[in-house]
Amino acid sequence: MKTLQELSALPKFSAILPSYYEMDGMIFAVAASPEIPMPETWMPWLIQHSGSTMVSEDVDELAECLMETLRNHLSAMRTQDNYLPLTCRWQQGATIPESLELWLGGLLKGHQLLESIWRNAWERKAKKENLSADEEDPATRLARCLKLFSTLARHQLALSQRSGENAEKLRANLPVLWRQLPAMLQEYVTLSGDLAQALPNQFEMYNKIPDA
To answer: Are the C-beta atoms of residues 42 and 30 closer than 8 Å to each other?
Structure first.
């Protein structure tokens, strides 16, 4: 089976799919959702030209690859492995690469499409239990994650929206934020797991992903 990166480079797929990094970020968001939607719900999100047609063999190949990518992300979440593709990981002295911007852009797009699931899990958890005195509000935790993701994904925009001194402070702090990204992605996954406990049958959802 071809990897998602290999498949997305083929002409028959590259014309209808986003970049590999954007797709991988979106699939990460799906895997990290408190409740994973069925494939027929989230797979169409990755098709950027809805009028395009594919033969059945191509559809099957794409679906199989997308499901395998989802499984790989879920496996990494169970072992708390690094979720980022190699080219997106922090390197001393490097500038933020386009691949990271695309990956985080895909994550943010996926999260937006999954907002109703997050909200449902949130409301169920709030009804089931109250926060303890030393427990941080999930809304604050999620906002912190999304702010870092957004800043790194759109760092040029974030710089342009700040005054000279503040822009320089952010520019100097970008490597620090980049280094913090793996921990913040883990916080995002952990928060999702906390919220998922309020939903029914989530153990099965996270451990028995259906075949495409």
So the answer is: yes
